[in-house]
Amino acid sequence: MRRYDRLKHILRLDPEKDCHEIYRLIAVYEFPWDLARALEVALYRTYAVPSIGRLLAETAELTDRPQKRYDDTVLLLDAVVEHGFDSVNGRTAIRRINRMHRSYEISNDDMRYVLCTFVVMPKRWLDAFGWRRLTGHELSATAYYYRTLGRHMGIQEPPRTYEEFEKCLDDYEDAHFGWDERARQVSDATLALMASWYPAPLAPLVRSASTALLDDSLLRAFRYEQPSAATRRLVRAALRLRGRGVRLMPPRRRPHFARQNPEIKSYPGYPKGYRLAGLGTFPGNGQEPGEDGRAQGKGGQGPSACPVRHIRA
Question: How far apart are alpha carbons 303 and 250 in whole angstroms?
Answer without folding.
Answer: 41
